[in-house]
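Hi P.,

Sorry for the delay on this. The queue was packed all week, but I finally got your sequence through. Input first:
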Amino acid sequence: MFRRTFWFTAGAAAGVWATAKVNQKIKQLTPESLAAQAAGKAVEAGHRLKGFAVDVRTGMVRREAELGEALGIEAPSERALPPAGPRPITAPGRPGGRGAPPRAGRRPGPHHTSNESNRNEDH
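Then the structure:
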C-alpha cells in the first residue's frame, strides 16, 4: 500500500511540474511576450552599438593625437569631434535648414513658365 501511495504522489508531482512548465512556455510564446522580448533585445543591441561607437571615437581621438605628436602637428581645438548626442535635423543645402539651393536654369519662387513645371512633356 505504501508503494502505491508513493508512486501516485510522485506521478501527481511530475504532472503538476510538467503542467507548470508547459504553461510557462505558452506564456512566453504569446505575441505580446515575443514583441516585448524583441524590443528588449533591440534596446540591448542599441546600447551595445552606442558603446562600440564611443569606443571607436575614443580610439580615433587617441590615435589622432599619437599621430599628431609623431608628426609634430598640433591639432587645433576647433577641429575636435562634436559631442556624441542627438543633432538637430536640418534640410540639406542652405544653413539654417531653409532647403536646397536653387538649381541652375530655374528661377526661384512660384514665377516660372509652364515648360519648366511640366517635366513629363515630350520635346
